[in-house]
Design goal:
- The chain is of the alpha/beta class.
- About 45% of the residues lie in helices and about 15% in strands.
- The protein has two domains: about 170 residues, 3-Layer(aba) Sandwich (Rossmann fold); about 70 residues.
Length: about 260
Amino acid sequence: MPYMPNTLMISQRFADHRLWGDIPARLSAQSGIVFYDLGETVDPGSPQVLDEIRDLVPADRSGFDVVVGAEDAARPAVGTVLAGLANGLVLFQPALDGVPEELESVDFSGLEEKTRLYAPLLAAVGEPDAAKWRDLVAEVVDQTSGAHLAPQDRALVRAVIADHAGGIQHELQQAVAARAEGRSSRTRAEPGERWIDRLRELTVPVVIMSTKAGFRVAEVLAARALRGEAVLSRGEAGLPWLEDRDKAVAALTAMIERCS
């Protein structure tokens, strides 16, 4: 029987595997697909996450051919490779756990507008009515990401994120409370332990795909990996796998062929 590769796709927090859209279906002829959805309250770098990923390895395999991570799933995706559980890594618009020192400067253009668009969530963080809060989350997502997406993707993103509205509210409430007490709501990885630093330890092929806004960061990160490559995608929403599907599928297919 021909060998069928296996690809692990890790979704970001406050979303789930539905947000990959039709990408898994388009890859199904090249690879079996295994999903892992990050829990809303779990630290992406916790040992629990890696233990749960290890339990997903097919019984007849020692690991996955490729691991894929979106946004803050970058950390467990890198951890999966470091644990010897994957032969290739693809990251989409990864969320940083620190600022790489190679960056000459950090581009904050557009931050003021994003802050304005997300302000209604902070203003209503104590909303007791779950339905009202869900509607507000859906509306904010529509105004931020949805405005740049095709209609079917806009509806998908709105529905998926709205389904995780409760987790978003809890996270914001924790952050507001921590700020009032002068502390951080999350444990920060120390330099050297951050996933952006541990890229230097990887010997497997690495592809980091990002829209224009994050592409300079993607280039810096890819250069840290021994066999890293940055890929520029179309789009403004920061969801390159939805905004530039053909290029995303091509990058994933190439990685699967390379690592299987």
